[in-house]
Amino acid sequence: MSTMAVPDIAVAPVRKGFWTRSRKVGLTLLGLGLLAAVLFGALATEQEARFTLSDDAAGAALEINGTIGAILFGIIAIAAGAALLAGVPKRWFLPVLAVGLVGFVLSFLCWQVSAAPAGQNFMPLVNIIRGTFILALPLIFGALAGVLCERSGVVNVAIEGQLLMGAFSGALFGSISGSVWVGLLAAALGGAFISLLLAVFAIRYLVDQVVIGIVLNLLAVGVTGFLYERLMQTDAEKYNSAPRFSNWEIPLLRDIPVLGPALFRGNIFLYVGLLLVLVIHIGLFRTRWGLRTRSVGEHPIAADTLGVKVLRVRYRNVLLAGVVAGIGGASYTLALYSFTKNMIGGKGFIALAALIFGRWNPTGALLAALFFGFADQLATYLGAISSSIPSQFLAMLPYLATILAVAGLVGRVRAPAADGKPYIKG
Amino acid sequence: MEPGEIHALLGENGAGKSTLMNVLYGLYQPDEGEILVDGKPLKLKGPSDAIGAGIGMVHQHFMLVPVFTVAENIMLGAEQVKGGIAGFLDRRRARREVTEVSERYNLQVDPDAVIEDLPVGIQQRVEIVKALTRDVDLLILDEPTAVLTPQETEELLTVMRSLKAAGKSIVFITHKLGEVKAIADRITVIRRGKTVGTASPEASRDELAALMVGRNVRLTVDKSPATPGEPVLEVAGLVVDDDRQIRAVDGMDLTVRAGEVLGVAGVQGNGQTELIEAIMGLRPVLAGTVSLIGDRIDGWTTKKVLRAGVGYVPEDRSVDGLVKEFSVAENLVLDIYDRPPFGAGLALKPDAIATSAKERIEQFDVRTSSADAPVGTLSGGNQQKVIVARELSRPLKLLIAAQPTRGVDVGSIEFIHSQIIHERDVGTAVMVVSSELDEVIGLADRIAVMYRGRIIGIVGPDTPREEIGLLMAGISPDAAHERSTDAAPADGAATDGSPASDAGSANEDEA
Amino acid sequence: MSNDPTPQSGSPDKEPASEAQAAQNALGNTERAELATEPNTPASKPEPQQEPRPSLGRLFIDNLWAANTFTVTLLSLVLAIVVGAVLMIISDPAVLSTYSYITSRPSDAINSSWTLVSEAYANLFKGSIFDPEAFAGWLDGTNSWQAVLAPISETLTYAAPLVFTGLSVALAFRGGLFNIGAQGQATIGVIMAALAGFLLPLPPGLHLLVAVLAGALGGAIWGFIPGILKARAGAHEVINTIMLNYVATYFLTWLIVQNGVQDPNRTDAISRAVDTSAQLPRLLGDNLRVHAGILLAVLATWAVAWLLNRSTLGFELRAVGANPDAARTAGISVTRTYILIMVFAGILAGLGGSNMVLGSTASALTPLVVAQIGFDGILVALLGRVKPWGVLLAALLFGALQAGGNRMQSYSGISLELVTVLQALIVIFIAAPALVKAIFQLRAARAARLQTSLAKGW
């Protein structure tokens, strides 16, 4: 055989034009960098932009001249964009992109902080970081609930309802019993209750998973709202005064500069949330449970031929998702606020966005949630320094980012292959 | 089955081979009868029972999770874990196991490769390793070579021999004669759900082919000799990819003339589907041209192709041919709903649709309770008649019928065949694609045999069916006689070694 | 279209076979919903079966206990009402306390529960359909005829926008797309309608027309985005419509406080009021809120029914929805159809939005001006079995629940949220006919086709 180099079935050449995704992203980043260097640079003032390492204006700070900072960081974004445009190795794509985006954001901040009214030209980093994590917290729990559910092939649009039910039952039973732990348990069960309905209707009765998710959200809003008005409003003392978890300061970690005071001096739900990200990530990719979960979400028939009980895995995961989201709901009512009607207010859907933006991956979801939390926190901060940027546009950011992601502009987003498809044994 | 035996199940598409094996693997439950293992009856409730009984199966459509690594796929369902209830996967052990098995049977696979990045041949190897790590004694291979290149096929045969040497029994389901002769110890031929004979590999190709296609059940179609006219459809140098971006039609030339039926025979998956879809504008043409009476139609939308006078009976009526929820009447106008008299501007004309439906139902003998009944409630034959009625009720220049009688009762088959011949007789160019050789022989005036995206030969309808069968297996007539005596595995051999003795083989080598 | 019995409606549900029957069935439900507290009326509806064979009554009973659409809808209502009653009881400490001694004096528990529940549901009925006291008052001359019609007026007022959003969701559903974005489309619709309503100085009549069309245009734009993303990039419309809902909401909250939009006399988030020349006229005098929106809603229902069943476009849309592969093979452009579907869905939802600010519900933009009409529209569409006339009736039922819920809240102190619960429950039960069947031990008959939903992943 002399011509053995010629394969029998020719594989179609991968049509790779010049405009790869990496280059398109690079071009966009380059544009953003130019915008930052020119526009933000021009709008920034000569004031020092101070990034204090504390809760307020006091203490040590990173300082930079507003104009110089805006231009400098803009140039960093330009450089990163140019690097991508020129072409970088694949594994460098994300780091370079990250550098570019951070440069863009910093340029923006230099402009905003320097242009703030006199006396307010500072950004308290501890405050910002803490706020970011606190605002991201329900998103983290919600997105993890989404990961658990969707990795096993059940679409979870009911995150909002699970969070809400968790918050409500945590508040109600925490108040009645006077115990945070009873409240926490009740919250987990509350979330699991919505999950149970989702599981039964989606798996047993084959109702479209998106439909049932949407309806369950409305049901949760209705039931909690109804009981809130009937019980909690009439007797808040008895029904809506749940005890709160006291602050837990973590030794050693609390002393890390900036991060210590920002993260490790209080909210135990934050610890739980971060721990859960780790546990679920390891569980999903390193354990038997995770392997089976993913197989059921990707190719249930193959799993079935190997003796994996598809439906049982799905039931279990959906219920677990409810527990996680329920605890997420409790992070409101057993740590921060008393229950109010519809208090989740769409966070469940941002969590869904974080799940998608994080590509159905626990760590990705965490990063997405933090990004969305930061946007949220930034909106609050900019409002406080009477910025010219309307907070509503920052609030839109998570949603717009998700639309771009699913449209394939930011990267390939692929759901588990069997996500949303009921499994009917042949 | 004996231990250490390779038993080939030979039969045409749809003969019932795969169903039988799925029952053996516990995926389907038998309606009656029983399975004996070592003389004892075996009840299989599910695949795990089959695995437990030492039966493994490599499905025609691989049961692999595409985003998993090889090791993960092999572990799944039989995970080695450590760390107590946490159940951490013991990847090292899994990897070792994979390496062990693959070395023992000479099946090289990289345990850390991701399935979707692997070529099909390797994926299949993973399937085999998966079964072997589960300590099976009997391995069922369902059409394993259908998706393989000749080289891969050759490698598979080698693997099978080494498995046999290790004392494993193998059931090898196929419809390719050459492979069977090359490897099987015993051959059972199945046709229409029944065993029609057993043979030893020494039986000649011709005998086997005769057993397989069965000369007794020939369907006869009454027709007069064709009077071919001008070329209507001309395909030149056509190149088309399938859904996986793999070349399916590879530089194909074809001409269909007015007033003739060109039958396209071939084992399924040799590019027939993609060829038709490309002609119909449903699949992008990567190279080459398609012309309809001189007009280039490649690049046209499907609607435009249909409007130009092409009738199309798609091969899978429930997916592409009919909207099951729609009524018979609506399905009868599915591609002409917006043309007078059925549609005027934006408005639909229900009365015209109903009147026309009544006529068509009468004319094409569609058995339905009413024209308003959802088409999904009709029998397969009557559903097919609805499609045929729809396509034949407008003036055509070209009719393309793919698997026109698949899953259709005998009465309807005859009716549909006579309609196709009638269409030919009024001067339409007809192209019939079928994996039923009987059908092609019965209908066609010329038979083009398709093999790996090309026409391997064009023969008359009086050609012995054995010869056509060999063509379908990729062996052109002249070469076939030379080779019927040598035991070389057919598919692989066609490209290996022997000098190309005719156009068909030559094509293959270049491919 | 009601004058001829649509022979090839092409409806996915075999039963009821025509829109007219579906309408009839759903109407039965509306009437019965309010009577269900006293479950003594298996009122004999006209038999929907066309060929009366053995005995009509017999057939009816058979049919009733067969799990058909009508029965499932009815029983879903009953179930929802029962669950609602349970919620009322467990959330009333006074009533609940009587259960602590239920073994010794069960009558207390039963009586107090009955009083609570029956009063609440009676108020629901009086607030939405007919109030006997107002009728008596009219006979006595103590109040005007308008008081008698007030409940109906309220029901129709609430129903009108829901018809539009319900049609929006239903239309998309028939085309195989799940439009969760009716809320966002209605939001952009309400913005455009309001802007046209107070920014454009136009003569009466024309002004109203322009404002209504502006609302439709706004919705169309917001529907076009997920439509084109679906058609061109394959982006899942469920995700995109959810996200666009929030984008629209934030845009609205931003817009309201801008100069030229915000009411110059107010500091809170409210816009200038729509000119009277752009407001939908009231139908029954100024004291009753019912306005021309409900007429537009009926017109829209007719138009959508025509579009779906009598137009080539509707044919394409239904074909794409039922089997996109076959549609493509038959030469229908699936991508073009997807875009058109979402644009039409957007137009309908946008019209629903216009209703919220051009009608009597509100006359200026506030952050909550759209209420929940988009999400309720999903429920309405599902309850209406994604058929136009079914949607109209489902919207009337939901409108009645809203209107009655208001009275229930003010007279019985039962939170309006109960209405949300009832609505969600009804649809949950309807979506799982097998469950309803199991609960009531229905004869296992032809239930397979009752599934309302399409299975879709991301």
UniProtKB/TrEMBL annotation, chain A:
Pfam family, one: BPD_transp_2
GO molecular function, one term: transmembrane transporter activity
Keyword Lyase attached: no
Membrane topology classification: Multi-pass membrane protein
Cellular compartments annotated: Cell membrane
Transmembrane segments: 25-44, 64-85, 92-116, 128-147, 154-174, 180-203, 210-228, 268-285, 318-337, 349-372, 393-413
Superkingdom: Bacteria
CDD domains assigned: TM_PBP1_transp_TpRbsC_like
Keyword terms of this UniProt record: Cell membrane, Membrane, Transmembrane, Transmembrane helix
PANTHER family per UniProt: GUANOSINE ABC TRANSPORTER PERMEASE PROTEIN NUPQ, SUGAR ABC TRANSPORTER INTEGRAL MEMBRANE PROTEIN-RELATED
Protein name: ABC transporter permease
Organism: Micromonospora arborensis
Automatic annotation (TrEMBL), chain C:
Superkingdom in the source lineage: Bacteria
Region (Disordered): 1-54
Keywords assigned by UniProt, alphabetized: Cell membrane, Membrane, Transmembrane, Transmembrane helix
Keyword Cell membrane: yes
Membrane topology summary: Multi-pass membrane protein
Biased composition, class Polar residues, residue ranges: 1-11
Cross-referenced CDD domains: TM_PBP1_transp_TpRbsC_like
Location of this chain's protein in the cell: Cell membrane
GO molecular function: transmembrane transporter activity
Transmembrane intervals: 65-90, 155-173, 180-200, 206-225, 237-257, 290-308, 338-358, 364-382, 389-406, 418-440
Keyword Metal-binding: no
Annotated Gene Ontology cellular component terms: plasma membrane
Protein name in the entry: ABC transporter permease
